[in-house]
Amino acid sequence: MKNQVDLVHWDAEELGNHHRILSERYEAYREQKISLDMSRGKPCREQLELSAPMLQILPPDDPLRAEDGSDCLNYGGLDGIPEAKALFSQVLGVDPKELLIGGNSSLTMMHDTLSRAMLHGVYGSELPWGKLPKVKFLCPSPGYDRHFAICELLNIEMIVVDMLPGGPDMEQVEQLVREDDSIKGIWCVPKYSNPDGITYSDETVDRLARMKTAAADFRIFWDDAYTVHHLTSKPDELKSIHAACRTAGNPDRVFIFSSTAKITFPGAGVAVLASSERNLDLIRRQLAVQTIGPDKINQLRHVRFLPDADHVKRHMEKHAAIIKPKFDLVLQKFEAELGGKQIASWHKPNGGYFISLNTLDGCAKEVVRMAAEAGVTLTKAGATFPYGRDPRDRNIRIAPTFPSLAELDTAMDILCLCVQLASIRKILSER
Ligand code: PLP
Questions:
Q1: Which atom of ligand 1 is nearest to the CA of 189?
Q2: Per-residue pLDDT for 132 more than 80?
């Protein structure tokens, strides 16, 4: 049977022999005392250097005034300088009036938006969400662990929804939101999703926009973090949720978040919230109590460095040139080491920051543990599901951008060994 690639068809002796050979290779790696951290999706140094000129872009004698004449060194400009709104308006395809430019982190904006909803409600709420006996959120999974962490912190119950090739399982979503008025929202990473790299289909966008919700103040938290982060010259297209919501007669349904964290600097980017004017009016009133204005100097730096969507596009092509070979390497390794063996499957994203690997059920934790013992730290198994619990214990998020190609090569060898060893043990244990 050994001429079959599919490990499931090997007999016990062949599997045992193969396990021995792979174990020797694994032990050899363990003795090398490698130390590689691939747990988070961070840009590498070369990517950060692409934006280094931005730090020198404001000359010492610059008046540091925004185009409306306001002094960027002083207080004010609560929702951002006009030229930053113009830039994000092009990138996100919304009217500048429907934008609020913030500080460094879109995650902060998401956290604050949900916290405000809990404390005060959103536009149109009869009660603050936090005054209700229960608040629930739909969490298409695998998904972004930090979204789930915000829900956990605010005591919002999370309901797992399956991810399908075109986005969340809309049958599930529609039924749940129609029947349960304690479901107040859904987390979405609609383009090059974290971690699957999936872009929502037009149909998914339309159904999210028009679905009937038992909660009148239901909101879509649309985290468009990877909106311009393409890896190919034929990028995925995402239909505008904002326009779809308006067309469906639900203009206040969506909060769109994004940032330049992975365009310029994660440590010094600019974040943005796009929504209806009514939603933003309420948020601005609440925000005015929290701050007298964001870091407008950083906004100014950004618009001088990336004045329009075309500059952003060309800048992102430079990122892709650095990270595409890393994605290709991971995919080649998976194909060469795991392909056809029926022990793993993975997505081939056209953009974003991750590759999502699914092992045989019940193997992900063991693979991550074994990789860590051999010096490769991966994102914790389970992290891509609410409460850190992957019901099938099979999803592993691979973040290829930060390590060098040489490091990635070693890390993927180790990971593929771990997947094979854990799979053989699982197959044998079930015989
Ligand atoms: N949203 C998603 C889906 C992410 O993957 C990340 C970072 O990994 C963020 C948001 C963080 O964005 P920011 O740096 O703007 O807070």
A1: 3
A2: yes
pLDDT over 90 (residue 2): no
Spacing, Cα 235 to ligand 1 middle (Å): 20
**Cβ(149)–Cβ(102) below 8 Å:** no
**Nearest residue to 148 via CA among 182, 200, 189:** 189
Question: What residues flank ligand 1, with Cβ below 6 Å?
Answer: 41, 105-107, 144, 189, 194, 223, 225, 259, 261, 266, 269, 271
Model confidence pLDDT, tens digit, residues 15-74: 999 999 999 999 999 999 899 988 889 999 999 999 999 999 999 999 999 999 999 999
Task: Please tell me the CATH superfamily of domain 7-47+313-429, with its number.
Answer: Aspartate Aminotransferase, domain 1 (3.90.1150.10)
* pLDDT at residue 1 in the model: 46
Architecture in CATH of 64-307? 3-Layer(aba) Sandwich (3.40)
Least confidently predicted of 1-5, 54-58, 369-373: 1-5
Q: Whose CA is nearest to atom 6 of ligand 1?
A: 225
Determine the average pLDDT of the residues in 75-96. Answer: 97
Structure tokens that stand for 81 in this block: 């300088």
Domains in the chain: boundaries? 7-47+313-429, 64-307
299: tokens are 């906004």
Q: How close is the Cα of 351 to the center of ligand 1, in Å?
A: 14
Q: CATH topology of 7-47+313-429 equal to that of 64-307?
A: no
Please report where in the chains the tokens 């100097």 appear, as a residue. 297
Ramachandran bin of 422, using left for φ above 0, alpha for ψ from -120 to 50, beta for the remaining angles? alpha
